[in-house]
Amino acid sequence: MAAMLAAALFPLLGLIGGAIDMGRGYLSQVQLQQACDAGVLAARQRLGATVVVDGEVPGDVASTGQRFFNINFRDGVYGTSNRAFAMQLENDYAISGFASVDVPTTLMRIFGQENLDISVECEAILNFSNLDVMMVIDTTGSMRHSNPGDSLSRIETLKQTIRDFYAVVEGGKAPGTEIRYGFVPYATNVNVGNLLLDEWVVSTWHYQGRTDTGQRLPNENIGRTFNRNWTYVSGSRSNWQEISTYAATWNEPANADQSGWWSCNGSRPANSWSYTDTQNGAGYVQTQAEPAAVLQVQPMQRIQNGTRYTTWRSGQTCRVMKSTDVNYIERYERVREVPSFDRIVWEYDEITRDVSNWRTETGGCIEERDTYEITDYDNVDFDQALDLNIDLVPTPGDPATQWRPRYPEEIYVRRIEANGSGNFDTRKHRTTNEYVDSGTWWFSDCPAAAKKLDVMSADQLDTYLATLVPYGATYHDIGMIWGGRLISPTGIFAAENADTEGRQRSRHMIWLTDGQTEPYDLAYGVYGVDGLDQRRWDPDSSSETLPQVIENRFGVACEQVKNRNVTVWVVAFGTGLTDLMTECAGPGRSFQASNAEQLNDAFEAIARAMSELRITD
């Protein structure tokens, strides 16, 4: 028995010792794998997303990965020795790692096995799964300006940043995934006509315009001189800024059949603004059919400097505003009109027009569907505010739910004269006076066409970005409304945007502006002429200014977008973030960028947040 026990002792020791040592080896291997994973994850996170574009690897990537490896597998743990960890950047910008360690044996030493050689491999990659990205871009006139220190204008800087963002996302796209991009350029209007079905658009609509009565009065003037076709050349002009307010004065009517009116009679600072006009080429002669006249046209250039002051009335409040020019240069045409015939008697009123040929007759901008003047923004009636009901599909034959084509050439604002004098009047008027045709003025401009979500190549992206031209005024609400409509999975494009079995999408909106809300009550926008149509704002009775109305409606629209499980990112470029913008985005999703570098940093942070950092199999 003693001989048999002695013969069995060594095999028993081998089994027991092997189990103990292999257990320690297994524990070391598990923790070594976890440390390896932690190291490459930290290194890949530090590497960032822009390496796909610029190829630059931050100098502390390796040290970051090594530090996380060391924390998760400390030197000498389990009695190990010769700890080693190495990383490598792969062609797909993944970071692979190799870790090894020696685990000393105990009982196995008597069999000549002093160490267990343990090694593991790991790899981390930053990539993107199914993703929808809607970019809502402020393309107003101020985007042609450059930020201090930048060599390109804001719009050109933004275009390059979007190209880099696209390269980052496409470079990190996971195999078999679909990434779609959409765009909503906005200013006073949005250009979405190319996206609408015929049955979503009315067949007739009414516009604030005029008709020729057929009557003629003798021409009492020998002609008039006016300026047209203003074009920006260079320099800077600040937005109108409020410097003070005072109460408007109520003027009683002279007769019982007349209406009283509010006026602003207070003083304001004297202008320091001046300009110099010079001829800018040879003049020419042009004929005009209506009203019949000969036009003597002289190209001109104007250099403007200094500060102007003006007074705006918002209901019963007078607002004193200022704007400053610094070598602001514009080119224009000075026109001398020599009438040929008698004066036309016009009837200014709402006119009804057949718009069934709107696809060929208009540039694609629209007027919004029915809405109302909201007084409680916490309890909006979306059965009335159909413009803010972003998922509502229009009912064919129901004009309240349909959109209306924009016809800027039809717009004449009664009773505002070309020199800016006069007041809004919703009543019908017959006169030979020429009221302003503000539908064709710069602040009523129609921006570039919006684009639905779709897969894009780099060439297609470049082609689209080339269409973005800065012009018009800043109306934030309509950009948010249409950005929401184009990305919503449950709205008018639900058939294309909804999640399907086997394909879930992450949805993100990047909303960018370079300025604060800057509306004009004369402008012809998506709600008609605000001072006349009064669909969302009544200048005589509203307790809010037009900018306040637009900003509050922007806030409502933003909440509607987020309710569709869309992550909203807000970027203020060359301007400050307002509380409303920060609230719209939510914690950690708003950025203020003063130059091109900061704009790139913002978009890199957004791209990183959209991506998935993971360990590969």
TrEMBL record:
SUPFAM superfamilies: vWA-like (SSF53300)
Gene3D superfamilies listed in its UniProt record: von Willebrand factor, type A domain
Domain Putative Flp pilus-assembly TadG-like N-terminal intervals: 2-44
Origin: domain of life: Bacteria
InterPro entries, per the entry: Tad_N, vWFA_dom_sf
Protein name listed in UniProt: Putative Flp pilus-assembly TadG-like N-terminal domain-containing protein
Organism the protein comes from: Aurantiacibacter zhengii
